[in-house]
Protein backbone atom coordinates (compact mmCIF):
# COMPACT_ATOMS: atom_id res chain seq x y z
CA UNK A 1 0.00 0.00 0.00
CA UNK A 2 2.85 2.37 0.84
CA UNK A 3 4.56 1.81 -2.51
CA UNK A 4 1.25 2.27 -4.33
CA UNK A 5 0.68 5.54 -2.52
CA UNK A 6 4.17 6.73 -3.46
CA UNK A 7 3.39 6.02 -7.10
CA UNK A 8 0.13 7.95 -6.86
CA UNK A 9 2.02 10.82 -5.28
CA UNK A 10 4.58 10.84 -8.10
CA UNK A 11 1.82 10.81 -10.73
CA UNK A 12 0.05 13.63 -8.92
CA UNK A 13 3.19 15.72 -8.94
CA UNK A 14 3.72 15.16 -12.68
CA UNK A 15 0.13 16.25 -13.29
CA UNK A 16 0.64 19.38 -11.24
CA UNK A 17 3.74 20.23 -13.22
CA UNK A 18 1.84 19.86 -16.49
CA UNK A 19 -0.79 22.27 -15.19
CA UNK A 20 1.89 24.82 -14.36
CA UNK A 21 1.36 24.74 -10.63
CA UNK A 22 5.10 24.66 -9.97
CA UNK A 23 5.72 27.81 -12.00
CA UNK A 24 6.15 31.28 -10.65
CA UNK A 25 9.17 30.69 -8.44
CA UNK A 26 10.96 33.52 -10.23
CA UNK A 27 14.57 34.01 -11.15
CA UNK A 28 17.27 35.59 -9.09
CA UNK A 29 20.99 36.13 -8.79
CA UNK A 30 23.26 34.11 -6.56
CA UNK A 31 23.10 34.90 -2.85
CA UNK A 32 26.26 36.49 -1.59
CA UNK A 33 27.67 34.80 1.50
CA UNK A 34 29.46 36.12 4.57
CA UNK A 35 31.42 32.87 5.03
CA UNK A 36 29.13 31.65 7.80
CA UNK A 37 26.30 30.36 5.70
CA UNK A 38 24.35 33.62 5.84
CA UNK A 39 23.28 35.00 2.49
CA UNK A 40 22.89 38.68 1.68
CA UNK A 41 20.19 38.92 -0.96
CA UNK A 42 20.12 42.61 -1.70
CA UNK A 43 16.32 42.56 -1.83
CA UNK A 44 14.18 45.47 -0.68
CA UNK A 45 12.91 45.44 2.88
CA UNK A 46 9.53 43.99 2.05
CA UNK A 47 7.52 42.25 4.77
CA UNK A 48 7.88 38.51 4.34
CA UNK A 49 6.45 35.53 6.21
CA UNK A 50 8.30 32.27 5.70
CA UNK A 51 6.55 29.00 6.45
CA UNK A 52 9.10 26.50 7.81
CA UNK A 53 8.27 22.79 8.10
CA UNK A 54 10.21 20.19 10.09
CA UNK A 55 9.78 16.48 10.78
CA UNK A 56 8.91 15.24 14.28
CA UNK A 57 10.90 17.83 16.24
CA UNK A 58 8.12 19.29 18.38
CA UNK A 59 7.85 19.51 21.33
CA UNK A 60 11.30 18.13 22.19
CA UNK A 61 13.21 20.96 20.58
CA UNK A 62 10.76 23.84 20.96
CA UNK A 63 13.18 25.93 23.02
CA UNK A 64 16.01 25.52 20.51
CA UNK A 65 13.89 26.57 17.55
CA UNK A 66 12.23 29.46 19.36
CA UNK A 67 15.69 30.86 20.08
CA UNK A 68 16.89 30.17 16.54
CA UNK A 69 13.87 31.86 14.98
CA UNK A 70 14.06 34.85 17.33
CA UNK A 71 17.71 35.37 16.42
CA UNK A 72 17.01 35.22 12.68
CA UNK A 73 14.04 37.55 12.96
CA UNK A 74 16.18 39.96 14.98
CA UNK A 75 18.73 40.05 12.18
CA UNK A 76 15.99 40.34 9.53
CA UNK A 77 13.23 42.63 10.91
CA UNK A 78 11.26 42.32 7.69
CA UNK A 79 10.98 38.52 7.97
CA UNK A 80 8.62 36.49 10.16
CA UNK A 81 9.04 32.70 10.54
CA UNK A 82 5.98 30.45 10.93
CA UNK A 83 7.33 27.10 12.18
CA UNK A 84 5.21 23.97 11.73
CA UNK A 85 6.10 20.36 12.53
CA UNK A 86 4.65 17.20 10.98
CA UNK A 87 5.14 13.42 11.37
CA UNK A 88 7.57 11.71 9.00
CA UNK A 89 4.89 9.71 7.19
CA UNK A 90 2.76 12.77 6.49
CA UNK A 91 5.13 15.47 5.32
CA UNK A 92 5.68 14.51 1.67
CA UNK A 93 1.98 14.10 0.87
CA UNK A 94 1.24 17.30 2.77
CA UNK A 95 3.87 19.12 0.71
CA UNK A 96 2.26 17.91 -2.52
CA UNK A 97 -1.15 19.01 -1.34
CA UNK A 98 0.17 22.43 -0.38
CA UNK A 99 1.82 22.87 -3.79
CA UNK A 100 -1.40 21.90 -5.55
CA UNK A 101 -3.33 24.52 -3.59
CA UNK A 102 -0.66 27.18 -4.21
CA UNK A 103 0.21 27.27 -0.50
CA UNK A 104 3.64 25.66 -0.49
CA UNK A 105 5.95 26.23 2.49
CA UNK A 106 9.07 28.28 1.90
CA UNK A 107 11.59 26.10 3.72
CA UNK A 108 11.19 22.39 4.43
CA UNK A 109 12.98 19.58 6.26
CA UNK A 110 13.21 16.42 4.09
CA UNK A 111 15.33 13.31 4.23
CA UNK A 112 17.66 12.63 1.31
CA UNK A 113 15.34 10.30 -0.60
CA UNK A 114 12.42 12.72 -0.31
CA UNK A 115 14.56 15.70 -1.35
CA UNK A 116 15.85 13.87 -4.41
CA UNK A 117 12.43 12.57 -5.36
CA UNK A 118 10.87 16.02 -5.13
CA UNK A 119 13.85 17.65 -6.80
CA UNK A 120 13.85 15.42 -9.85
CA UNK A 121 10.21 16.44 -10.39
CA UNK A 122 11.30 20.11 -10.44
CA UNK A 123 9.61 20.73 -7.09
CA UNK A 124 12.74 22.01 -5.28
CA UNK A 125 14.99 25.01 -5.93
CA UNK A 126 18.38 24.07 -7.41
CA UNK A 127 20.74 25.41 -4.75
CA UNK A 128 23.79 24.87 -6.95
CA UNK A 129 22.43 27.69 -9.09
CA UNK A 130 21.92 29.97 -6.08
CA UNK A 131 24.92 29.52 -3.77
CA UNK A 132 28.53 30.55 -4.01
CA UNK A 133 31.37 28.03 -3.91
CA UNK A 134 32.25 29.41 -0.48
CA UNK A 135 28.79 28.59 0.84
CA UNK A 136 28.83 25.08 -0.62
CA UNK A 137 32.23 24.42 0.98
CA UNK A 138 30.74 24.86 4.46
CA UNK A 139 29.41 21.28 4.27
CA UNK A 140 31.12 17.90 4.05
CA UNK A 141 31.22 17.08 0.32
CA UNK A 142 29.85 13.56 0.76
CA UNK A 143 26.78 14.98 2.51
CA UNK A 144 26.26 18.04 0.29
CA UNK A 145 26.48 15.79 -2.78
CA UNK A 146 23.81 13.44 -1.45
CA UNK A 147 21.07 15.59 -2.99
CA UNK A 148 22.98 16.44 -6.17
CA UNK A 149 21.58 14.83 -9.32
CA UNK A 150 22.68 15.88 -12.81
CA UNK A 151 24.52 18.85 -11.36
CA UNK A 152 21.53 20.19 -9.41
CA UNK A 153 21.50 20.33 -5.59
CA UNK A 154 18.02 19.95 -4.15
CA UNK A 155 18.71 20.63 -0.47
CA UNK A 156 21.34 21.60 2.10
CA UNK A 157 22.51 18.82 4.43
CA UNK A 158 21.45 19.44 8.03
CA UNK A 159 21.82 17.04 10.92
CA UNK A 160 22.98 13.52 10.28
CA UNK A 161 23.79 10.28 12.02
CA UNK A 162 26.21 7.43 11.51
CA UNK A 163 25.55 3.94 12.83
CA UNK A 164 26.53 3.18 16.42
CA UNK A 165 26.37 -0.19 18.18
CA UNK A 166 24.40 -0.04 21.44
CA UNK A 167 24.79 -2.97 23.83
CA UNK A 168 23.02 -3.95 27.02
CA UNK A 169 26.02 -4.50 29.29
CA UNK A 170 24.14 -6.77 31.69
CA UNK A 171 22.90 -9.12 28.97
CA UNK A 172 26.24 -9.12 27.14
CA UNK A 173 28.11 -10.14 30.26
CA UNK A 174 25.45 -12.72 31.16
CA UNK A 175 26.09 -14.28 27.74
CA UNK A 176 29.80 -14.55 28.58
CA UNK A 177 30.89 -11.97 26.00
CA UNK A 178 33.51 -9.23 26.42
CA UNK A 179 31.82 -5.84 26.38
CA UNK A 180 35.23 -4.20 25.90
CA UNK A 181 35.85 -6.14 22.70
CA UNK A 182 32.61 -5.63 20.73
CA UNK A 183 31.96 -7.16 17.29
CA UNK A 184 33.66 -5.29 14.47
CA UNK A 185 32.14 -7.19 11.56
CA UNK A 186 28.65 -8.42 10.78
CA UNK A 187 29.97 -11.97 10.95
CA UNK A 188 31.06 -11.37 14.56
CA UNK A 189 27.80 -9.54 15.23
CA UNK A 190 25.82 -12.62 14.17
CA UNK A 191 28.02 -14.89 16.28
CA UNK A 192 27.29 -12.69 19.30
CA UNK A 193 23.56 -12.85 18.56
CA UNK A 194 23.66 -16.65 18.59
CA UNK A 195 25.56 -16.81 21.86
CA UNK A 196 23.25 -14.26 23.49
CA UNK A 197 20.22 -16.36 22.56
CA UNK A 198 21.82 -19.58 23.79
CA UNK A 199 23.00 -18.12 27.11
CA UNK A 200 20.25 -15.65 28.01
CA UNK A 201 17.18 -16.64 26.00
CA UNK A 202 17.08 -13.12 24.53
CA UNK A 203 17.43 -12.31 20.84
CA UNK A 204 20.63 -10.69 19.60
CA UNK A 205 19.36 -7.70 17.62
CA UNK A 206 16.56 -6.46 15.36
CA UNK A 207 16.64 -5.91 11.61
CA UNK A 208 14.68 -3.68 9.27
CA UNK A 209 13.44 -4.80 5.86
CA UNK A 210 15.74 -2.65 3.79
CA UNK A 211 18.16 -2.99 0.88
CA UNK A 212 21.00 -2.07 3.22
CA UNK A 213 20.84 -5.67 4.50
CA UNK A 214 22.52 -6.94 1.35
CA UNK A 215 24.32 -3.78 0.18
CA UNK A 216 26.26 -3.82 3.46
CA UNK A 217 27.56 -7.24 2.45
CA UNK A 218 28.92 -6.02 -0.88
CA UNK A 219 25.93 -6.71 -3.14
CA UNK A 220 24.76 -3.89 -5.38
CA UNK A 221 21.29 -2.39 -5.42
CA UNK A 222 21.71 -0.77 -8.83
CA UNK A 223 24.27 -0.91 -11.62
CA UNK A 224 27.24 1.46 -11.38
CA UNK A 225 25.55 3.99 -13.67
CA UNK A 226 22.27 3.76 -11.69
CA UNK A 227 20.44 2.68 -14.85
CA UNK A 228 19.05 -0.72 -13.78
CA UNK A 229 18.53 -2.98 -10.75
CA UNK A 230 21.48 -5.24 -9.91
CA UNK A 231 20.39 -7.00 -6.73
CA UNK A 232 18.77 -10.16 -8.09
CA UNK A 233 21.85 -12.33 -7.60
CA UNK A 234 22.73 -15.61 -5.86
CA UNK A 235 24.77 -13.56 -3.37
CA UNK A 236 21.77 -11.49 -2.29
CA UNK A 237 19.61 -14.60 -2.13
CA UNK A 238 22.08 -16.29 0.24
CA UNK A 239 22.36 -13.22 2.47
CA UNK A 240 18.58 -13.08 2.88
CA UNK A 241 18.37 -16.84 3.42
CA UNK A 242 20.91 -16.55 6.24
CA UNK A 243 18.82 -13.82 7.90
CA UNK A 244 15.68 -15.93 7.60
CA UNK A 245 17.45 -18.85 9.27
CA UNK A 246 18.59 -16.60 12.12
CA UNK A 247 14.99 -15.47 12.58
CA UNK A 248 13.77 -19.06 12.64
CA UNK A 249 16.44 -19.91 15.22
CA UNK A 250 15.32 -16.99 17.41
CA UNK A 251 18.57 -15.05 17.12
CA UNK A 252 16.67 -12.16 15.50
CA UNK A 253 13.00 -11.29 16.21
CA UNK A 254 10.52 -11.94 13.42
CA UNK A 255 9.84 -8.24 12.95
CA UNK A 256 10.38 -5.47 10.45
CA UNK A 257 11.86 -3.24 13.13
CA UNK A 258 11.36 0.34 12.04
CA UNK A 259 12.82 2.96 14.38
CA UNK A 260 10.00 2.91 16.94
CA UNK A 261 10.02 -0.91 17.05
CA UNK A 262 13.80 -0.90 17.40
CA UNK A 263 13.49 1.27 20.49
CA UNK A 264 10.74 -0.91 21.96
CA UNK A 265 12.71 -4.13 21.56
CA UNK A 266 15.90 -2.73 23.08
CA UNK A 267 14.22 -0.75 25.87
CA UNK A 268 12.20 -3.82 26.94
CA UNK A 269 15.36 -5.99 26.85
CA UNK A 270 13.97 -8.35 24.24
CA UNK A 271 17.26 -7.87 22.38
CA UNK A 272 20.74 -7.25 23.76
CA UNK A 273 22.13 -5.15 20.92
CA UNK A 274 20.99 -2.68 18.29
CA UNK A 275 22.61 -0.51 15.65
CA UNK A 276 21.21 3.00 15.39
CA UNK A 277 22.30 6.63 15.35
CA UNK A 278 23.19 8.58 18.47
CA UNK A 279 19.75 10.22 18.52
CA UNK A 280 18.49 6.80 19.62
CA UNK A 281 19.74 7.68 23.11
CA UNK A 282 17.10 10.36 23.70
CA UNK A 283 14.31 7.91 22.92
CA UNK A 284 15.90 5.20 25.05
CA UNK A 285 16.08 7.56 28.02
CA UNK A 286 12.39 8.29 27.70
CA UNK A 287 11.46 4.62 27.23
CA UNK A 288 13.60 3.08 29.98
CA UNK A 289 15.97 4.82 32.36
CA UNK A 290 17.04 1.42 33.71
CA UNK A 291 18.15 0.10 30.32
CA UNK A 292 19.75 3.44 29.46
CA UNK A 293 21.87 3.17 32.61
CA UNK A 294 23.36 -0.16 31.51
CA UNK A 295 23.84 0.61 27.82
CA UNK A 296 27.29 0.88 26.26
CA UNK A 297 28.14 2.33 22.82
CA UNK A 298 30.82 1.35 20.30
CA UNK A 299 31.45 1.79 16.56
CA UNK A 300 28.96 -0.21 14.52
CA UNK A 301 30.13 -3.44 12.88
CA UNK A 302 30.51 -3.48 9.10
CA UNK A 303 29.68 -6.09 6.49
CA UNK A 304 31.84 -7.37 3.66
CA UNK A 305 31.06 -4.22 1.69
CA UNK A 306 32.92 -2.19 4.34
CA UNK A 307 30.51 0.71 4.00
CA UNK A 308 28.93 3.11 6.48
CA UNK A 309 25.84 4.95 5.40
CA UNK A 310 24.68 8.15 7.06
CA UNK A 311 21.06 9.05 7.65
CA UNK A 312 20.84 12.72 6.84
CA UNK A 313 18.07 15.24 7.23
CA UNK A 314 18.17 18.17 4.83
CA UNK A 315 16.76 21.66 4.49
CA UNK A 316 15.37 22.57 1.10
CA UNK A 317 13.39 25.33 -0.58
CA UNK A 318 10.31 24.28 -2.60
CA UNK A 319 10.32 25.76 -6.10
CA UNK A 320 6.79 27.06 -5.53
CA UNK A 321 7.91 29.50 -2.82
CA UNK A 322 7.10 33.13 -3.48
CA UNK A 323 10.02 34.23 -1.30
CA UNK A 324 12.98 32.37 -2.77
CA UNK A 325 15.78 34.74 -1.72
CA UNK A 326 14.63 34.98 1.90
CA UNK A 327 13.92 31.24 2.07
CA UNK A 328 17.45 30.40 0.90
CA UNK A 329 18.87 32.81 3.44
CA UNK A 330 16.93 31.14 6.26
CA UNK A 331 17.93 27.65 5.04
CA UNK A 332 21.59 28.73 5.18
CA UNK A 333 21.05 30.17 8.66
CA UNK A 334 19.46 26.98 10.02
CA UNK A 335 22.33 24.89 8.65
CA UNK A 336 25.29 27.17 9.38
CA UNK A 337 28.16 25.86 11.51
CA UNK A 338 27.22 27.64 14.75
CA UNK A 339 23.58 26.58 14.69
CA UNK A 340 24.37 23.00 13.67
CA UNK A 341 26.86 22.72 16.53
CA UNK A 342 24.27 23.89 19.03
CA UNK A 343 21.60 21.56 17.67
CA UNK A 344 24.01 18.62 17.80
CA UNK A 345 24.67 19.33 21.47
CA UNK A 346 20.97 19.28 22.24
CA UNK A 347 19.86 16.44 19.97
CA UNK A 348 22.83 14.02 20.07
CA UNK A 349 23.15 14.29 16.29
CA UNK A 350 26.11 14.97 14.01
CA UNK A 351 26.48 18.19 12.01
CA UNK A 352 27.02 18.30 8.26
CA UNK A 353 29.27 21.37 8.47
CA UNK A 354 33.06 21.07 8.42
CA UNK A 355 33.73 23.69 11.10
CA UNK A 356 31.22 22.29 13.59
CA UNK A 357 32.98 18.95 13.92
CA UNK A 358 36.20 20.70 14.97
CA UNK A 359 34.62 21.58 18.30
CA UNK A 360 35.96 19.60 21.32
CA UNK A 361 32.40 18.46 21.95
CA UNK A 362 32.89 15.77 19.29
CA UNK A 363 36.22 14.46 20.58
CA UNK A 364 35.88 14.52 24.37
CA UNK A 365 34.66 11.37 26.14
CA UNK A 366 33.39 11.99 29.66
CA UNK A 367 32.34 8.39 30.12
CA UNK A 368 28.63 8.92 29.45
CA UNK A 369 26.69 6.96 26.85
CA UNK A 370 26.07 10.15 24.89
CA UNK A 371 29.78 10.97 24.73
CA UNK A 372 30.84 7.47 23.70
CA UNK A 373 28.22 7.32 20.96
CA UNK A 374 29.14 10.78 19.74
CA UNK A 375 32.86 10.05 19.54
CA UNK A 376 32.29 6.66 17.89
CA UNK A 377 30.20 8.16 15.10
CA UNK A 378 32.06 11.48 14.64
CA UNK A 379 35.28 9.67 13.77
CA UNK A 380 33.80 8.55 10.44
CA UNK A 381 31.95 11.73 9.48
CA UNK A 382 34.40 12.74 6.78
CA UNK A 383 33.67 9.41 5.04
CA UNK A 384 29.89 9.59 5.43
CA UNK A 385 27.64 9.09 2.43
CA UNK A 386 23.91 8.74 2.13
CA UNK A 387 22.40 5.54 0.82
CA UNK A 388 21.16 5.73 -2.80
CA UNK A 389 23.43 8.70 -3.50
CA UNK A 390 22.24 10.61 -6.56
CA UNK A 391 19.49 8.14 -7.53
CA UNK A 392 16.27 9.40 -9.09
CA UNK A 393 13.06 8.06 -7.54
CA UNK A 394 15.19 6.75 -4.68
CA UNK A 395 12.33 6.69 -2.20
CA UNK A 396 10.13 4.59 -4.49
CA UNK A 397 12.98 2.19 -5.27
CA UNK A 398 13.80 1.68 -1.62
CA UNK A 399 10.14 1.18 -0.71
CA UNK A 400 9.62 -1.32 -3.53
CA UNK A 401 12.52 -3.46 -2.35
CA UNK A 402 11.47 -3.10 1.30
CA UNK A 403 7.97 -4.38 0.49
CA UNK A 404 9.40 -7.61 -0.95
CA UNK A 405 11.87 -8.01 1.91
CA UNK A 406 9.02 -7.63 4.41
CA UNK A 407 7.33 -10.60 2.79
CA UNK A 408 10.54 -12.62 3.15
CA UNK A 409 11.11 -11.65 6.80
CA UNK A 410 7.53 -11.80 8.05
CA UNK A 411 6.02 -14.53 5.86
CA UNK A 412 9.07 -16.56 4.86
CA UNK A 413 8.08 -16.03 1.23
CA UNK A 414 10.19 -17.61 -1.49
CA UNK A 415 13.30 -15.42 -1.70
CA UNK A 416 14.03 -16.00 -5.39
CA UNK A 417 10.46 -15.08 -6.36
CA UNK A 418 10.45 -11.98 -4.18
CA UNK A 419 13.78 -10.77 -5.60
CA UNK A 420 12.50 -11.28 -9.12
CA UNK A 421 9.31 -9.37 -8.29
CA UNK A 422 11.33 -6.58 -6.66
CA UNK A 423 13.53 -6.40 -9.74
CA UNK A 424 10.46 -5.99 -11.93
CA UNK A 425 9.06 -3.32 -9.60
CA UNK A 426 12.30 -1.32 -9.67
CA UNK A 427 12.55 -1.55 -13.47
CA UNK A 428 9.04 -0.11 -13.71
CA UNK A 429 9.96 2.74 -11.36
CA UNK A 430 13.17 3.52 -13.25
CA UNK A 431 11.36 3.58 -16.61
CA UNK A 432 9.21 6.53 -15.64
Topology, please?
Layout lengths: L1 H17 L13 E2 L5 E2 L7 E8 L6 H14 L3 E8 L1 H13 L6 E5 H8 L13 H4 L4 H4 L3 E2 L2 E2 L2 E2 L6 E5 H6 L11 H15 L11 H4 L18 H15 L10 H9 L5 E4 L3 H8 L1 H5 L1 E5 L9 E2 L2 E4 L7 H11 L2 H11 L21 H10 L6 E2 L7 H18 L3 H16 L2
Strand order of the largest sheet: 4-3-5-13-8
- Topology, number of strands: 14
- CATH architecture of the largest domain, by name, is 3-Layer(aba) Sandwich
- Beta-strand content bin: 5-15%
Query: What's the CATH first level of the largest domain?
Result: Alpha Beta
- Overall mean pLDDT stands at 87
Describe it for me?
With 432 residues, the protein is α/β, with parallel strands linked by helices. Helix 1 packs antiparallel against helix 17. It has 2 domains: 191 residues, Periplasmic binding protein-like II (D-Maltodextrin-Binding Protein, domain 2, 3-Layer(aba) Sandwich), CATH 3.40.190; 187 residues, D-Maltodextrin-Binding Protein, domain 2. The strands form 5 sheets. The chain has a 5-stranded mixed sheet with strand order 4-3-5-13-8.
Write a brief caption for the model.
This protein has helices at residues 2-18, 62-75, 88-100, 112-119, 133-136, 141-144, 169-174, 186-200, 212-215, 234-248, 259-267, 280-287, 289-293, 324-334, 337-347, 369-378, 394-411, 415-430, and strands at 32-33, 39-40, 48-55, 79-86, 107-111, 148-149, 152-153, 156-157, 164-168, 273-276, 295-299, 309-310, 313-316, 385-386. It is an alpha/beta fold and 432 residues long.
Amino acid sequence: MKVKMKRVVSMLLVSMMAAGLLAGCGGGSKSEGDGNGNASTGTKEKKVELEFWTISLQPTFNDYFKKLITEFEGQHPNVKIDWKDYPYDAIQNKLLTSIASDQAPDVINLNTEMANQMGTKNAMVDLNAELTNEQKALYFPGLYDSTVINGKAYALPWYTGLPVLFMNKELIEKAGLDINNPPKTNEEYNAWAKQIKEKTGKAGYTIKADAELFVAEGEKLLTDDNSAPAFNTPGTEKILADYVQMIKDGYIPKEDAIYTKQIQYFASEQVAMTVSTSSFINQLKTSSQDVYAKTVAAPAPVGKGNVRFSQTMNIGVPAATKNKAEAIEFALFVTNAANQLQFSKEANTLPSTVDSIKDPFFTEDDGTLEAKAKVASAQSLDKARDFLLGVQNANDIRDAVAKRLQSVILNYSDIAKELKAAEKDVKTIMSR
